[in-house]
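User: I'm writing a short methods note and want a consistent example. For Outer membrane protein beta-barrel domain-containing protein, I'll paste the sequence; you return only the structure tokens, no commentary, since I'll be parsing the reply automatically.
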Amino acid sequence: MLLSKNKLLTLTFLLSFGLFFQTQAQREIYSDSVSFKDRLYYGGNFGMQFGTVTLLDISPLVGVMITNRYSAGVGVTYQYFNDRRFFGNEFSSYGGRVFNRFNVLPNIFIHGEFESLNFENYNTQSERFERIWSNALFLGGGYFAPFGGGRGGANFTFLYNVLHDNLRSPYGEPYVIRVGFVL
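Assistant:
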């Protein structure tokens, strides 16, 4: 419970800190004036935890600004997990995702994403781990905190998986909070 409160406090601090960034004017996107290459952006999430439970998450993405307020893109995910409390509890997950994002305000966006992950799932019927594909449909929104004079910044995204299944999901809860960076 204390760990959960510390995570919430840290997230609240990061979000509050991000709100102090000055709002950055969006680039104007016109199909005839800005090349496709200049409308691309890159980023993703990276996470790690070491100790009794080790977790490594690498999730790069590439997106394209379709209009001034709407973008779409694709990403891949690789996760390594090792829980030393249990014998044989070491595995990798991998998969991909497609997403859509719409800026309702310059720094506030709504987000929709379809993700498919392949992971080791414990089957209670056979009492063993089996590799399965799990699909997720995330809906939510977030805040973009720009930094520097360029296009880069940090994304704070709060999502809800409307397809969540406790028995077939790599996520313990339908809610997912992400912090990522884009360039």
